[in-house]
Write a structure and sequence with these properties.
This protein has 151 residues and is mostly helical. Helices cover 52% and strands 0% of the residues. The protein contains 6 helices and no strands. The protein has helices at 14-24, 55-70, 86-94, 99-116, 123-128, 132-149. The radius of gyration is 15 Å and the shape is globular.
Length: 151
């Protein structure tokens, strides 16, 4: 299944993330099982249609759930106590570097650039330069965008 849609993302060199991952994590760690997103409460009087998140939205939600459960880290892909940076959480949620993982990363970086300026070239540089609250707000905005784009 191809999750690509028409968007205004900045084109990136496909080898950029591979090179960054090799520098950050020369020996990849086996992915952990992603946590399930929290159920959305609904009113018994109003039956809302069930929403099936697309692969990008699911990856982003699962990664944010991972950060909520295990903690968020700076300056380290994986903290010794289990916390991860944004890339580490995406990797744990996706399970592999698949299309949803790449698209979720592109959407997250695009949202970070919208909110914190176009100077951010990679997710790790943006992640390490902001507070936990700022990082979380970008994650939530990216999830919201993926939901509305139905990806």
């Amino acid at each position: 299944m191809n999750t690509r849609t028409q968007n205004d993302f900045t084109p990136l060199d496909p080898g950029l993330y591979a090179a960054a991952f090799q520098l950050l994590d020369p020996q990849p760690v086996a992915p952990e099982a992603p946590s399930a997103p929290a159920p959305v409460p609904s009113s018994p009087a109003i039956a809302l249609p069930e929403h099936w998140p697309g692969p990008v939205e699911k990856t982003l939600r699962d990664a944010l759930g991972f950060l909520d459960t295990h903690g968020w880290a700076r300056h380290s892909l994986i903290h010794p106590e289990g916390a991860r940076c944004s890339i580490g959480a995406l990797r744990a949620a996706a399970g592999s570097r698949n299309a949803a993982y790449r698209d979720a990363g592109n959407l997250l970086l695009d949202e970070a650039r919208r909110r914190h300026g176009k100077k951010w070239q990679t997710i790790p540089h943006w992640n390490d330069s902001h507070t936990g609250a700022q990082v979380r707000s970008v994650w939530e905005a990216a999830i919201h965008r993926a939901h509305h784009l139905n990806i």
